[in-house]
Amino acid sequence: MKLLLDHVSKKYGNKYALKDLNIEFSDGVYGILGANGAGKTTLISIITGILQQTSGQVKLDGSDIKDMGTKYLDKIGYLPQYPQFYPNFRVKEFLMYMCSIKDIPQKKAKEILPEIMEEVNLCDHMNKKIKELSGGMRQRLGIAQAILNDPKILILDEPTAGLDPGERIRFRNIISNIAKNRMVLISTHIVSDIEYIANQVVILQEGKLNRMGTVEGLCNDIQGSVWKVNVDEMTAEELMKNYLTSNIKRVDENVLMRIISKNKPIKNARMSEPQLEDVFLTVFCEQAGI
Ligand SMILES: Nc1ncnc2c1ncn2[C@@H]1O[C@H](COP(=O)(O)OP(=O)(O)OP(=O)(O)O)[C@@H](O)[C@H]1O
Q1: In the predicted model, is pLDDT for residue 156 greater than 90?
Q2: For residue 159, which of 134, 180, 117, 190 has the smallest C-alpha distance?
Q3: Superfamily of domain 3-219
Q4: Which of 104, 221, 266, 287 has the CA that lies 20 to 30 A from 280?
Q5: How many angstroms separate the alpha carbon of residue 17 from the centre of ligand 1?
């Protein structure tokens, strides 16, 4: 299955939210990474058909999704950035209700629910009211409703917002499990959410495609630009003024810094293996002309 963005642009008034995007998605997990306002939600809204692009086409296996109607919608599952639930519904009632909205017959719904509950680790909470669920459980319920129709394309918009570290890890494991034979698009500005599960990372910057590739490939591209230094407080302050610093840790009198720079920032700096977060910061670096 191939989902193609063919010269897709979206304008709000005179301002481009997306500009001439050309991206091809196939099966696997894609992390769509971008700072606030980079265009992630706009892109996802266009892919889900909620929003119409100003120009360009979105094609699934060669057909414009506009012409596919419900045939296209039947293939997608979607968890919006701010999912709305009925707080007084019980988990099971809510999912049965969502099945009926998605035209899944009751008999089939009763068959698939236990399996889906197991996939998202909510078996013990089937009879809880939604208002009694934690934030993480709610997000897992959101994933459950998105996969009821066994979608071939699963789209998750900032799915880990507000989750604690334990829930984030649980979420990542669930996504890895349900990603088999599917295309999964996850938008986020939290690098660690996708670093270990994304087969491909798409970095958006001010509505444009900045970079796309595997985590390994993207990191390789900035090989030689990430430095570790161990300095005193005064030198650290000086370095911070002149270089993009991705991490700082104070140990006793020393300051351990991780610096992104094409040039060696200081004599005793040691080159370090780039991580995805460094790539993401490099994008800002380039934007700011550092
Ligand atoms: N309805 C709208 N009307 C006008 N401008 C909009 C509208 N929706 C989004 N924008 C603008 O389009 C750009 C992209 O917004 P979008 O919400 O897609 O970004 P995002 O990457 O999802 O951001 P965030 O991480 O903050 O959710 C921003 O400059 C935003 O201000």
Answers
A1: yes
A2: 190
A3: P-loop containing nucleotide triphosphate hydrolases (3.40.50.300)
A4: 266
A5: 7
